Amino acid sequence: MTKTEILKRYTTDGRKTPTAFARTLAPSGAVVVAISESYETPTTNWWLDDVVGNVVLALLCLAGFSVVSTVLAVCVDFVWFSRRPT
């Protein structure tokens, strides 16, 4: 959306004075940072750029691997021992 489209949508006369509709049309909990053409967001990635993020990601991978390997071992054990004669 361009600046003029935003002003037309949230004001009645195209000026920078918001109407009563401006609050109801904005999403809940939204904060207007600026009315401009673009807004740059920070390019940091918490999972990969921070040491704590790396540790959390490693722990999640380890936990996922242990769950998957346990389920696989139980399935193989069930199939292997259910077909063997006793």
UniProtKB/TrEMBL annotation:
**TM ranges:** 20-36, 56-81
Question: Per UniProt, which keywords does this protein have?
Answer: Membrane, Transmembrane, Transmembrane helix
Q: Which domain of life is it from?
A: Eukaryota
UniProt-recorded name of the protein: Transmembrane protein
